[in-house]
Amino acid sequence: MSKYVAFNNDTALSYVQELGQFFPTDSELSCYEFGDGNLNLVFRIQDTNQRSIILKQALPYARCVGESWPLTLDRARIEASVLQKHGKVCPALTVKVLHHDSELAVTILEDLGDLAILRGELNQGQTFRQLGSDVATYLARTSFYHSDFYLSPADKKALVQEFTNPELCSITEDLFFDDPYRVHERNNFPAELTEQVHLLRQNSTLLINIARLKSKFFSSPQTLLHGDVHTGSIFVSQNQTKFIDPEFGFFGPIGFDLGSFIGNLLLNYCAHNGRVAEAPRRRDLHTYLLNTISTCLQVFEQQWLALAKEESRDLALQAPGFSEQFLQEVLQDAMGYCGTELIRRTIGLAHVADIDEIEAADKRLAVQKQTLLLGEQLILNAKSCRSTDDFYQLIISFVH
Ligand SMILES: Nc1ncnc2c1ncn2[C@@H]1O[C@H](COP(=O)(O)OP(=O)(O)O)[C@@H](O)[C@H]1O
Ligand SMILES: CSC[C@H]1O[C@H](OP(=O)(O)O)[C@H](O)[C@@H]1O
């Protein structure tokens, strides 16, 4: 019999007290639930001396929809294990796992409450100098050390099995590659976008590119991805960056995480057109976002190629020039996935606050038209991207 039970504030608190590991004995503890994500419960347990931990628990369904959308509890195991694997190769940029119980689908994490979620900060016009290089470092190190360049074929195949994540992958497969391109009740966009959406769905070249991206998502186990790199999955301060929430993790194409991240910066870029009235301020924020994208691409490339040169263990993959060729394809994939993130966040089920919180309907609509068009252009032009500079110049040519 399963011991699973969904916690409330009281039972989460008792569970932590029984573990007896995180606070001095006789501490006066309190607990409250404050999750704002689409899927899980998140509790903070704290004492009266500023000590606190986070308890995250998966529900047997998607929290944002309810029991009508059942969802595997195994996502908690996947999330904790990805964090442990990524934390080994990139400890400074990964939230720490303090405890995990797969049967209860519970993970206890370090409390990052001194930092803030990146999406909210960007929406308030905050900037973070180290963001582009930190994200690049996380993506380069986690993707390289879980790739065929580094792992033995046997270890890699065992890990691919351990991180098979069919139910969560199926959500991504539906929301990124199917729903936006067909009529579906999960989609969500204003009537004024109908004509643009209709044209998008009739673009046969676009649909072939979407098919290519989905096919690669299905069957390209290049590395252990985070699987859901958006600006709501990154905590930041002026001197720290921490990744959380990799429950969509699985072995997939390296370009998926990189493209998702850049897609979220571009969603924020376009949203500023509807959020920030003063032109000079808007220009500064746009410049910051473009510089962050440029830094992220360059540092990712530098670090990935350096790791490939110094740490590759597979003989054939060390052939001179191969890692550069491999990386070029990663960049093309990233540009395509970046486009799919822009489109699905505009007309699919899961939107972003960057756009949805724009109060004036006409300004919001103008932003939605821009993100849809930008997404389409990035997907259509992905194959012509041969370098990080090409990637950056293509973005510039579409946003200006
Ligand atoms: N380690 C943490 N420290 C502090 N707050 C956290 C931590 N992990 C999650 N949270 C809070 O809980 C919210 C939801 O967490 P998230 O992991 O994104 O949940 P979901 O899986 O439901 O998307 C985050 O936006 C953040 O406010
Ligand atoms: C019903 S899942 C929709 C969407 O939510 C996930 O993000 P998060 O849990 O971090 O809010 C993921 O991006 C899914 O595509």
Automatic annotation (TrEMBL):
One Pfam family from the record: APH
Domain spans labelled Aminoglycoside phosphotransferase: 33-262
Binding positions (substrate): D228, R344
MF-aspect GO terms: S-methyl-5-thioribose kinase activity
The reaction(s) this protein catalyses: 5-(methylsulfanyl)-D-ribose + ATP = 5-(methylsulfanyl)-alpha-D-ribose 1-phosphate + ADP + H(+)
Highest taxon of the lineage: Bacteria
Positions that bind ATP: N40, K56, E110, D111, L112, D245, P246, E247
E.C. code: 2.7.1.100
Enzyme class: transferase
Pathway named in the protein's UniProt entry: Amino-acid biosynthesis; L-methionine biosynthesis via salvage pathway; S-methyl-5-thio-alpha-D-ribose 1-phosphate from S-methyl-5'-thioadenosine (hydrolase route): step 2/2
Keywords for the protein's UniProt record, in alphabetical order: Amino-acid biosynthesis, ATP-binding, Kinase, Methionine biosynthesis, Nucleotide-binding, Transferase
Membership in a protein family: Belongs to the methylthioribose kinase family.
Function, in words: Catalyzes the phosphorylation of methylthioribose into methylthioribose-1-phosphate.
Complex formation: Homodimer.
UniProt-listed NCBIfam families: MTRK
Listed name of the protein: Methylthioribose kinase
